[in-house]
Amino acid sequence: MKRGARKAVGFDISDNAIQEARQLAEIAKMDATFERINIVDIDDKYNNYFDFIYISEGSLQWFPDLNEYFAVISRLLKEGGQLLIFEMHPIAYLFEVDFDAKKPDFDLLIPYFEKGPYHYKDGLDYIGGVEYETKEGYWFMHKLSDILKALIKNGLILEDIEEYNWEMANNESTKVLDKFPLSYLILSKVS
C-alpha cells in the first residue's frame, strides 16, 4: 500500500495470523482488510479483483491439490495481474522431520517424490525456533515441477524464477544446509 495500492486484502486460515496481520497494519497505519478463510473457499466476489497477489513462505505445503489452489489464484487476478511467490523450496522439506544436519541420517529424509500427507504433532515457530502445542495436522510435498505445472495449467505465465540457499529460519541447521536450494521466488502473470 505504501507503493500506491489503494486497497489490500490478506487471507489466512489461522485466527492468530489474521490477528497479527491486523495488529501490524494498525502499527503501520494501513487500512488493509484481513479475512480468515481457506484460500480454496474464497467466493466469486473477488473474481478479477486483484492486480497483484503475494504468496508467502510456508503456504503451499498445506494444500493437497495445487491445481485447485492456483485455479482460485488465477480467477482472483485481473487480466495482466501478477503473482509473486516466495516460498520454501521443496528440497528444504526433505529435512523437515527429525533430520539433524550436524549428524545426518539420510534415512530420515522426507522422500521428494512422495506427495504425502505427512503428519506432525507439534507446532514450530520458524522465526523464533520455538516449539508450541497445537492440533496435529498434515502437510504435503510438492515437487518444483508440480508447482510450475499447476501455475501453467491455470493460465499463469512464468515470467521469472530464482532459487536461493536461504530461508526465513536462521538457525544452525540452515547454515549446514546452505549447499541446497532452500527457497525460491516465482513471478508470473495471468495470460
UniProtKB/TrEMBL annotation:
This is Methyltransferase domain-containing protein. Signal peptide: none annotated. InterPro entries: Methyltranfer_dom, SAM-dependent_MTases_sf. Residues 7-89 form the Methyltransferase domain.
